[in-house]
Amino acid sequence: MTATDIIIAGGGLAGSMAAAMLGRAGYGVTLVDPHEAYPSDFRAEKVDISQAAILRKTGLADGVLRATTADGECWVARMGHVVDRRPTSQFGFLYETFVNAMRAEIPLGVRFINAKVTDISTSADRQRGNSAGRAVHPWQGCRHLAER
Fold first, then answer.
1. In the CATH scheme, what is the homologous superfamily, with its name and number, of domain 2-147?
2. How many CB atoms lie under 10 A from the CB of residue 137?
3. 77-101, pLDDT tens digit by residue?
């Protein structure tokens, strides 16, 4: 059994970002996800300039924005014809590329369990969970974070 401050079930964008930020803040973090690298996923996303500013405040922007393509102009088309061109401040990316760039920002002290969460139980002072992958990995987290 492994004790940790925070267990994150799922290493998509939200889970990977949480692991990066909480790990950088000094918490004991365990990220549980069945994929060591986020798999190919047919999704295209964007970060606008206000979201990029938030990423800069977190200290994650330098690493993850390198995985994007800056977009300075948006073409508006109707019936096969370009009817307008508008300036934009966006960064486009493939989802898996961005998630894997975010995972690269996770500090070395964050533990990664290559498995899928199979069970979670809670009580007043402790949560317990089980994960299964290549082997069974029981883990346990504490509710003492509010005291920090």
1. FAD/NAD(P)-binding domain (3.50.50.60)
2. 20
3. 999 999 999 998 899 999 999 999 9
